[in-house]
Amino acid sequence: MEKDNRKKPDNWSYVASKWKKSVLSLKEYLLTDTHEQPASSSFSYASLHLPMQDYTHATQLKEKLLLQYQSKCCDEVFPGEICTNDYGQCYHIVTRMPFSTSFVQQKKWEQILEHLELIPGIGPITRQKLHEEGYGSIKDLCAHSRFQTSAEKFMNHFEQGSLHDLHQWMSQRLHRSHPAWVKLMTMSPPQSWAFMDIETLGLFSRPIILIGAGQVEDNELVIHQWLVRDIEEEACALMEYAQWVQDKQFLVTFNGQRFDIPYLQDRWSYYGIRSSSHCYSLDMLYHSRSKWKQTLPNCKLQTIEQAILHKQRSEDAPGALVPEFYQAYLQTGNLGPMVPIVTHNQVDIASLAELSVKLYEQ
Amino acid sequence: MSNNPFSNQEPMEAFLHKLLADPWHQPRISHVEVMPEKEAEYVPLRRPLPDALQTWLERFRIRLYVHQVEALEAFREGKDIILTTPTSSGKTLSFNLPVLEALSKDPQGTALYLYPAKALSFDQLGTLKSMEKETGISIRPAVYDGDTPQSQRPGIRKKSRIVLTNPYELHMILPWHSKWSSFYAHLKAVIVDEAHTYRGVFGSHMAMVFRRFQRICKFYGSNPQWIMSSATLANPGEFSKKLIQKDCHWISKDTSPQRKKTFLLYNPFYDGIGLTTTHDSAKELMLGLMEHDLQSICFTTSRKMAEWMGMSLKELAERKTKVKASQIASYRSGYLPEDRRLIEQGLKEKRLLGVVSTNALELGIDIGSLDCVLMSGYPGTQISTWQQAGRAGRGKKDAMVCLIAFQNPLDQFLMDHPSSFFEKNHEHAIVDLSNPYIVSGHLLCASAEIPLNDSSDKDAFGHETWNILEEMEKIHLIRKTPSGWVYMGTGRATDAVSLNQIGSNTYRVLCGGKTLEQLQQGQAYREAHTGAVFLHMNQSYVVDRMDHEKKVIYAEPAQVDYYTEALKEVQLEVMGTLSSKICHGIPVFFGEVFSNESFYAYQQKRYDKVLSKMPLNLPDLRFETQAVWFEISLKIKEDVVKLVGEEGFIGGLHGIEHAMIGIFPFYVLCDRWDVGGFSTPQFYPSMKPHIFIYDGYQGGIGLAEKAYELFFDILLASYDVIRKCKCENESGCPACIQSPKCGNANQMLHKSGALIILEKLLCPKKEKEREL
């Protein structure tokens, strides 16, 4: 009775293409005409504003790189090696750059003791009074009738170098942007600090494509990067980083408190990877903000880089376009578009380390 | 909770007595069904509750009904439960007791409560908070939804042992499960209240959301028990199995006490003429009830009508009765929560004597028990009708329910066949587990939550799972990895999948700097265009202008005695044909279309009379969807035009389109408002006459696709409806070819045109051999 000329075979490719279209229409950035960032969103990852000019520039860069790196293999583009664990493999890149740790020798961490407000009951007014009475450090307070007990307890933790107790103490007394936090960091040796930054396919619940982590060794900053050459390598990279960070004491990030750290935790849990890291987190965004909020137009890492560290980046890919660059790589197999991402990540980690020194010294 | 035998039955009895004897009303009352009084049935618990709860029951002198005890005992035995006892039968306690017992035994235990609407979660939050206070069981209940401030969220995730949320929020928070790990790990119970709302397209989405949720529970090692509560259904077992993949213990017998309830069917059109309208009859009955001091609620089928009837009742009451305007209110979605709360309180405290409401008051918000429920027009489903009817008859007085019919075919059928309503089975709640669009979307979401891999995922999402995933991998949305299938799209999967297709494109209605309410774009175009009379809380406003950039509508209060209706024109464009067939000689197609709606004018009307027509200048609403359509040969066109003229032919096409949309829901299991139609005497490029019916969902959701399969049945049923309708006018009636949602205000309709076209199409002998 009925003739059915089905052009649509029970057609999953048709349904899939509809999803593709709908997913592509979801942009996590907004193209704008100017470089002006709306004041409210300068620290918010929820709405990234991307100037049209930068977008055009980046698209040209992507095309240029696709030509430049045509038919080059991974080894040629990024000298490194394949690493393997239970979750498979990924690509490991190591970069070394000179980094002076002489600042640590200055024992600035003793300055923590100058922060009398660490002792319960001492606010700005009392501190001022105590200063006038000649109490310059917590050590001095051990002789103060009212604050003696607390001061002795604190000195005890301090002299034993008990990071755990000090951290707990400070968490209760100090705001997360308090300068004493940076000083606490130098109570543990530079080898135990980790500077971390990740590159992802989106703002949340998408794969991580690159994990970058820096470590100080002698007079060098050693940057490890675990590159996810294909999504199936993500779990391996996550595992590699989890093992690397295991013995570190301090995890230094820029906006990591809100982005990188929860993102990593989410991906670990996505793959059922148990991470036993117990790092104390230091987010330099908070410290930068409290230091330079008045003088800089915004507190993005790249603004600080230019104004404070006097560094200039070349051929950078805007963070918002990382997913598109990665997709271009996946679809062509050409690593060209990955070059600015890997470099960008290296520079971020180097800047983060330099910024930490800067904040420590000031 | 107690049964007072000394109740005063007089006012209701007096009212009914008068009504049934009244020569005007008598012929209009087509059926009287009396539901007798019923005593409560109690039974003791097999094992006592924990002390805190036992003391609580005793302190408030609560005796548990049989069905409440059954729920508790079944839960204790580890069963999942579906409760289908009526509104106000003590359902809340039926699930709160087992949950609190479980949570008091396991101090880390948690529970999730899911409500289809925000207002319901807040209602329940209040109940749980006072139970916590009175029993001393620490549960820290909290609502977690789109309005929960960021600053409170981490605390709720870590500390609250009962979290109340809604489907949309649940869908959005599933990918954040690592932040909820402790909540999931200790999850003891999931409460799904008003589960019958999860049917049709929405239900199919929810079935997938629940599967994603269960996968996450399993990931964290928990296997919570489910308690679903629902309106009476024909298929609770099948429904719950489909929705949550569990064999639920079904509790249906209501053992709570009930007063005598008289259910009237009232037909203003019994004579085929209709001297008054449905709404006028409802107003008249409502006034009479209020005059007898009987608290009543009248349900209407539209927002606009809830406002109009409220306004007009206030005016009538002040003019003709001792009832004051302040004792009457309207209620609908769109009101601010605090305004809604005031009306709910007003009903409970009997300060309000009459409320006109949309189905917004149909769900379980606590408003106490009323004396009478009126329904101005059949609410569309038996589920809704019984839910609405349940608003009366739980107090100490006898109650009345009255369904007043519209002129449309369905309402008229009910009036003529009361047994189909009172004796027959209730509706089936349909959940489609194989709608390809819905399943594939949720597979994307699931793959972003935990890699999809083991066989249980296949069991959950159906046998097509791997085929879908393979297609998705080809286009780089998903990647197969040793850990499973991993989502890798550049956009968030949960953002791509919308449970209800309501866009984020909303307009704010402002009056003197104050926000009256928010409207969806389509709603704003229809109800609040420049010049529109906009009604809010029984106040009329005239829209001054719309700002499309800022998405703001500026309205001014105005006393007007007319209302407005926007007229729209729909244009359709075929983007691609996906399937085609010759069905009984008729070329039928399924494919992708663009629909373009332009609101070109609006009418000012008073009592259905058009006062004037003004042009409108609104941007077009464009959207892409799927449609089923068919061609009518030029030969038929020629023949029909000879018989009824060009206008008769065009009106005939239009009429068939309406009739098909009217009958569509019965075949495709959706709502009339889920689909749209379009007909034209010449469609480019073939220039043949065409009729289209399309999904009202962006991108299409499989309704037209299903109608394509059932095309002939639908066409035949439409023919039956028109042929059997007794109306004599060529413009038809709501029972056949008029549509309540016609963008052209039911202009250009031609009943005999429609009949002749259908007869030529369906008469196989002549047309059979003639193919494309």
Q: What is the name of the CATH topology of the largest domain in chain B?
A: Rossmann fold
Structural class of chain B: alpha/beta
Task: Count up the domains of chain A.
Answer: 2
Give the largest chain-chain interface (CB within 8 Å): A-B, 52 and 52 residues
Would you write up a description of this structure?
The complex is a heterodimer of chains A (362) and B (772). Chain A has 362 residues and is of the alpha/beta class. Chain A folds into two domains: 65-103 and 187-361, Ribonuclease H-like superfamily/Ribonuclease H (Nucleotidyltransferase, domain 5), CATH 3.30.420.10; 116-162, no CATH class. Chain A has helices spanning 12-24, 52-68, 74-77, 102-105, 124-132, 138-141, 148-160, 163-173, 180-185, 234-245, 260-271, 284-292, 301-307, 322-332, 338-361, and strands at residues 3-6, 29-32, 48-51, 81-85, 88-98, 193-200, 208-217, 220-227, 250-253, 280-283. In chain A, strands 4-5-8-7-6-9-10 form a seven-stranded mixed beta sheet, sandwiched between helices. In chain A, helix 13 packs across helix 15. In chain B, a hairpin with a 4-residue loop joins strand 26 and strand 27. Chain B has five domains: 10-37 and 259-422, Rossmann fold (3-Layer(aba) Sandwich); 51-251, P-loop containing nucleotide triphosphate hydrolases (Rossmann fold), CATH 3.40.50.300; 436-496; 506-560, no CATH class; 568-603 and 618-767, no CATH class. The termini of chain B are far apart. The chains are: A alpha/beta (362), B alpha/beta (772). The interface between A and B is large, with 52 and 52 residues. Strand 1 of chain A pairs antiparallel with strand 22 of chain B.
